[in-house]
Specification:
It is a single chain. By secondary structure, this protein is mainly alpha-helical. The longest helix is centred in the C-terminal third of the chain and has 37 residues.
Length: about 260
């Protein structure tokens, strides 16, 4: 069931989620340039919402929606010892070093911004930085829901408060934090998800699970219950209004992202 982690956060007093910041981040984008086009932005946005909804097509997810193609005894190809559920994407021993490096990069990026602001306002951010480093989200484990929620995109109130202590207005803070987190998501996509997807595609080719088969209707599923990917609602365009984003989120929860 999605969003189970949010209930666990009630027992973590120093990681209370700021839902306004979280929603702002979900609707913000990285700036377009020669290396990050509008097409890249669309893929990034889709991946970001799939993270938030815990709706990435992991092997366990595929077993539930296409048991005719992905039989229950299948295990994750790279480590074989585990089922590939959502948490395993980040807990897999094959990705632990990369995941730790990505989290450290996030931490360093945030600290750099705090130091830059401290220099501008002539305030020493050392105590703030020490508190920031002590947040529970920087050590990743199966029992640490703070780091898990950070990856999903649920951002803590402390992130804003750290900058506000340095006299930065909330609107400006939200833009800075959203940019930092979007870069974090981009690194997860490039270093964790895309290599995993490439590895999975090679395995599917060996198993003769073709794109045509994946788009077909399972023979044991009534037509009225089945929605092929081609009929699912498209992602919201990057410049769409907030109401469209809300509709997109509702459709994502109901149908799953394409």
């Amino acid at each position: 069931m999605r969003f189970n982690f949010t209930f666990a956060l009630s027992s973590i007093p120093n990681f209370v989620i700021d839902w306004n910041l979280t929603w702002f981040m979900l609707n913000s984008e990285l700036q377009h340039d020669a290396s990050f086009t509008r097409a890249h932005a669309s893929s990034h946005r889709t991946f970001k919402f799939k993270l938030f909804l815990e709706d990435l097509p992991t092997l366990e997810h595929l077993k539930r929606v296409r048991p005719d193609l992905y039989i229950d005894i299948l295990s994750y190809r790279s480590c074989l010892a585990s089922k590939e559920d959502f948490m395993h994407l980040f807990m897999c021993k094959c990705r632990r070093i990369a995941m730790e490096q990505i989290l450290l990069s996030y931490q360093n990026h945030f600290i750099t911004k705090l130091q830059e602001v401290g220099d501008l306002v002539h305030k020493d951010p050392s105590l703030i930085i020490n508190t920031f480093k002590s947040l529970p989200c920087w050590s990743f484990s199966s029992s640490n829901w703070a780091s898990y929620s950070l990856i999903c995109g649920c951002l803590p109130k402390f992130f804003v408060e750290f900058f506000e202590e340095l006299s930065v207005l909330r609107n400006s803070v939200m833009k800075v934090i959203s940019a930092i987190h979007n870069h974090f998501i981009q690194k997860i996509r490039k270093r964790i998800w895309l290599p995993r997807s490439y590895d999975k595609s090679k395995w599917e080719n060996a198993m003769n699970i073709t794109q045509k088969l994946k788009l077909s209707r399972p023979s044991n599923l009534p037509k009225s219950m089945y929605l092929p990917f081609s009929t699912l609602p498209p992602p919201t365009l990057p410049n769409a209004a907030c109401d469209s984003d809300i509709d997109y989120l509702k459709n994502s929860i109901k149908y799953g992202l394409p």
